[in-house]
């Protein structure tokens, strides 16, 4: 496979862009080699600058649920562009998108548009602090909520200890207000709450984690968090930037029967355009300026191009429930194929899958949290990544990422992925 153009572009990019990329995971640091520069995409395929074709399982980290360059979304964007690109003033589609979100996610009574998932999570935390009059938050090790200071905190030495900054530039003061618990550990959460009575404003988590690989909540975990938050007056925030409108029409919260106080959204509600949102109980959302005293603003929030794409996407998902049946079938077929291949090869790696999200972990341990995810063989994953890439399958370049399926994947595509997976495992393990 010739990738000389991508290599040349990366060498040039490093002269002008930190690390040569505008988001760290794109640099291929976790898997080795140089990143592939993408030129175009259509349906289940992406094409690089050297003309190579790949079936890809990133889908822009989730939003391309209908596949790349979907004709309906393309037309919506094209039509919207005719009326200019941004106004910095209210538009009809902002209201229509908000109405769709409220109609599709029962826990959301009011919603505010922003420009990214990071903005959504940062804003939701601020509102929770303003609403409760408290400063501290609880997050979970391995959950990613964007690059806001409050979220770049590593776990301390015990469940009731303060976190420490995980990145230069994050102050110790911010770290002192961020408490970190292991995912799927209710007892640890209760210990944090007991040690910080009447000080915790919010608890935030990905209901299905996508940023330590795909990790599912244990039975009763989400319900236990809801109970703790109710008892302590803590705002429960579900970060559904990845799972919202992907795992079901009402997101992971609908699938698992959990009602948060606030929800953060992104990805799919922009149809591939940059967008985010946060919403929830009207009682809390009415604290947001100009209705209330908690300030949050953005010139490009509710951008008319993003709203046109998002409205088209949400309307399609709302009117075509068969999308979710297809995604469930695709996810189950892929998981079944991978499992059979591992059994055939005498392997016992861990495959976590729910609906259209999955991760193959190169560990024999069950993966339920970040420590168990970190038992994966990262060197072996790097070899697997490149073996799959050479067979025309483009994966996320990190063991600690979920893959995302789209409705553009047919049974033939799934068969090709399953075959490439088996051949790649045999190749890297010399079976």
* Counted beta strands: 16
Largest sheet: 7 strands, mixed
Structural class category: alpha/beta
Q: Determine the fraction of residues in helical runs and give it as a percent range.
A: 25-40%
Q: Uncertain regions: pLDDT < 50 for 5+ in a row? A: 155-162
Portion in beta strands? 15-25%
> What is the N-to-C succession of helices and strands?
HEEEHHEHEEEHEHEHEHEEHHHEEHHEEH
Average pLDDT confidence is: 95
Q: Which helices and strands occur, and which strands form pairs?
A:
Blueprint: H1 4-16, E1 38-42, E2 45-48, E3 53-56, H2 71-81, H3 92-104, E4 110-114, H4 117-132, E5 136-141, E6 153-154, E7 164-165, H5 172-176, E8 178-182, H6 186-195, E9 200-205, H7 221-232, E10 235-239, H8 251-256, E11 262-266, E12 276-280, H9 282-285, H10 304-319, H11 322-345, E13 350-354, E14 357-361, H12 370-373, H13 378-390, E15 393-394, E16 403-404, H14 411-429
Helix pairs in contact: 2-10, 3-10, 6-7, 11-14, 13-14
């Amino acid at each position: 496979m010739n990738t000389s153009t991508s290599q040349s572009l990366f060498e040039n990019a490093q002269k002008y862009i930190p690390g040569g990329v505008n988001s760290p995971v794109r640099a291929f640091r976790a898997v080795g080699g140089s990143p592939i520069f993408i030129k175009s995409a259509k349906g289940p395929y992406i094409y690089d600058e050297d003309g190579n074709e790949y079936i890809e399982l990133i889908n822009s980290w989730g939003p391309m649920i209908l596949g790349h360059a979907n004709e309906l979304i393309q037309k919506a964007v094209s039509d919207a562009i005719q009326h200019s690109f941004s106004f910095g003033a209210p538009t009809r589609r902002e209201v229509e998108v908000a109405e769709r979100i409220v109609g599709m996610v029962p826990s959301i009574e009011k919603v505010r548009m922003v420009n990214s998932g990071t903005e959504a999570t940062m804003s939701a935390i601020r509102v929770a602090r303003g609403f409760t009059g408290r400063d501290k938050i609880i997050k979970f090790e391995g959950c990613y909520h964007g690059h806001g200071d409050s979220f770049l905190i590593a776990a301390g030495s015990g469940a009731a200890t303060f976190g420490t900054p995980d990145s230069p530039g994050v102050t110790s003061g911010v770290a002192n207000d961020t408490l970190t618990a292991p995912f799927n550990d209710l007892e640890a959460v209760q210990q944090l709450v007991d040690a910080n009575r009447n000080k915790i404003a919010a608890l935030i988590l990905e209901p299905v984690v996508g940023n330590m690989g795909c990790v599912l909540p244990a039975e009763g975990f989400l319900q236990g968090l809801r109970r703790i938050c109710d008892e302590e007056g803590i705002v429960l925030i579900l970060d559904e930037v990845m799972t919202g409108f992907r795992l079901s029409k009402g997101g992971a919260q609908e699938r698992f029967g959990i009602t948060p106080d606030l929800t953060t959204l992104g990805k799919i509600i922009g149809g591939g355009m940059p967008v985010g949102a946060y919403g929830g109980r009207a009682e809390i959302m009415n604290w947001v300026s100009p209705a209330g005293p908690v300030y949050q603003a953005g010139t490009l929030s509710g951008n008319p191009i993003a709203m046109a794409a998002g409205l088209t996407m949400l309307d399609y998902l709302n009117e075509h429930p068969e999308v979710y049946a297809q995604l469930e079938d695709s996810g189950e077929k892929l998981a079944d194929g991978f499992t059979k291949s591992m059994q055939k090869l005498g392997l016992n790696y861990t495959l976590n899958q729910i609906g259209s999200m999955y991760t193959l972990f190169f560990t024999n341990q069950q993966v339920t949290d970040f420590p168990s995810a970190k038992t994966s063989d990262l060197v072996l994953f790097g070899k697997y990544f490149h073996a799959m890439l050479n067979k025309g399958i483009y994966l996320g370049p990190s063991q600690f990422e979920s893959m995302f399926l789209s409705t553009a994947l047919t049974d033939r595509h799934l068969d090709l992925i399953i075959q490439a997976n088996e051949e790649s495992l045999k190749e890297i393990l010399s079976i």
